[in-house]
Amino acid sequence: MLLALDLGREAARQGETPVGAVVVKNGEVIGSGYNRVEIDNDPTAHGELIALREACRTTGDWRLPGVTLYATLEPCVMCAAALIHARVERVVFAARDIRWGGIGSLFDLSHDPRLNHHVEVVSGVMEEEAAELLQGFFRGLRRAEDSRPNL
């Protein structure tokens, strides 16, 4: 989770929502990423998906059984669907996302009985640190918006 938080900080430095993600298999990082939605002008450039893509390149397979994804924020519905499709075994996330959360807060795709794969979920790991990072980022955005001249 420490690496995911570092990646989230890098995203914030680049003006992105501070979400970082790391994919681990057998104790080894096989993929990592952070949000690049603004940088890439790509609504799918979430940290989790970037980390998944890298993990798939690393393993040479789109299926990722036996891996754990660590993320600073609960994956959204899009990312949750990708995690399920990739057969990720476990997701560990820090802060819940009550607006977009796809594995427990708003929706729970991770345990939907209609799907053929279920994901073990661990939440709240380093939650305070992640929440502080996210809140600080959005506080800064609000301050920047408040200081803009009204035209």
What does the model show?
The longest helix has 20 residues, at 127-146. It contains five helices and five strands, in the order αββααβαββα. α1 runs parallel beside α5 (127-146). It has a five-stranded mixed beta sheet. It is globular and about 50 Å long. With 151 residues, the protein is of the alpha/beta class.
Radius of gyration over alpha carbons? 15 Å
What structural class do the secondary elements suggest?
A: alpha/beta
Largest sheet: 5 strands, mixed
Parts with pLDDT < 50 across at least 5 consecutive residues: none
Distance linking N and C termini: 43 Å
Work out the number of β strands.
5
Strand content: 15-25%
Going across the biggest sheet, name each strand in turn: 2-1-3-4-5
How many helical elements? Answer: 5
- H-E string: HEEHHEHEEH
Share of residues in helices: 25-40%
What is the molecular shape? Answer: globular
Compute the average pLDDT. Answer: 94
In short:
This protein is of the alpha/beta class and 151 residues long.
Please specify the SSE layout and strand pairing.
Blueprint: H1 2-13, E1 20-25, E2 28-34, H2 37-40, H3 47-59, E3 67-73, H4 77-85, E4 90-95, E5 120-123, H5 127-146
Parallel strand pairs: 3-4, 4-5
Antiparallel strand pairs: 1-2, 1-3
Helix pairs in contact: 1-5
